[in-house]
Amino acid sequence: MSAANKPVIVLVRPQLGQNIGKTARAMLNFGLTEMRLVAPRDGWPNPDAGPAASGADIVLEQARVFDTVQEAIADCSSVYASTVRRRDLIMPVIGPEDMANQIAASSKRSAILFGPERSGLETEEVALSNAIVTVPINPEFASLNLAQAVILLAYEWSKRSALSQPTAKEAEPRAPHGELDGLIGQLDDELEAKGYFHPPSRTQATKNNIRTIFTKTGWSSREVKAVRGIIRALVGPARLR
Amino acid sequence: MSAANKPVIVLVRPQLGQNIGKTARAMLNFGLTEMRLVAPRDGWPNPDAGPAASGADIVLEQARVFDTVQEAIADCSSVYASTVRRRDLIMPVIGPEDMANQIAASSKRSAILFGPERSGLETEEVALSNAIVTVPINPEFASLNLAQAVILLAYEWSKRSALSQPTAKEAEPRAPHGELDGLIGQLDDELEAKGYFHPPSRTQATKNNIRTIFTKTGWSSREVKAVRGIIRALVGPARLR
Question: Which residue stretches of chain B are H helix?
């Protein structure tokens, strides 16, 4: 992953130092390190930011401050404005996944703009962007705070980036069917010995049922062995310790 | 979208009321409304929760309190433990997208477990689950708080649920966890009677292993009943026909 397609996070006129710190933490959780601040209300550095960053100090230390959005995004080729759809602007509105795909496909710098906590981005600032990115949210309760909006977009970006590793993993491969057959055969024999299959006309249907029940388990070789041990214990005499 | 595949969010021994409130807010942003609390440290209701929920009061008002994880998930067929991989448990580890796909494909209730803020879930609690769900995160700075973990999983769920159609159906729905608990309890009792758990220092690990083996089966209510009959037959006297 090159630094080029790590998007820059641009906070426009952020109000609370605490929220800047929380944003740094959200960014670093997903490997984003470059924060830019446009005219932070309470100046910079802000003593409230560090404690809220929970250890993401490097992001705060490297943060750069700009007077205007234009200056902050001057070196960026693709700019996304995180906001809801604007009736006053005709421009593309995309979701977090599309944004992540576009950033990953680009070899140039990208930036994502986030507005002030209460008021959001000005129309003129949104108009500087290539697209609006909107998180699809519950229309009856849309209450994302700054750090949450950042973490959702950073998360989508990291999924597309090389940083993210495929997590889905079979804990253990399934046992070969032969081993499963051994288990089912053992069970059939033991049940036979107990007189479980009765009446004879139902025996085959019951055996088929046992087969499907134990075939669907997805057990590994280790687990098949464990279950075979359990069956032996169940039919055996009590061991006194 | 039916209520059936809205996952239940289970907070296990949550510590700060503020975090319970933030979690409610995170949930409702993505349309999740059912919160369950297992032994909240400071009791329930908690006066710190409301202000932090920023208007998601309905989630808090409807929250239900349980003494144990088992009781909280008794009516859920699929349970996901939000945690990092556990070396002491061999079970599937999936990412948020896979979890969302599985929940969307199921017609039965699902639950996602989140541990206490500092310590996380106990091994025995993770072992109650069908899979571990892990957010792929920056290995050098893994600092997700409770509400952030919830919002990321809720977000992934909402993406899938918007797409998912109520057509995908399992041949037979999974048994609720309460029924699986009954089976596992029966097996533990019978194995105990046979002196299977030895030495005592290994007993808990062996029981956890049995739990994961039988939890992963995906058995339906009918199949759980059949297996319970098989266990009874194995330990009982041979019936002469």
Answer: 17-29, 49-52, 57-61, 69-72, 96-105, 123-126, 146-163, 177-193, 200-215, 221-235
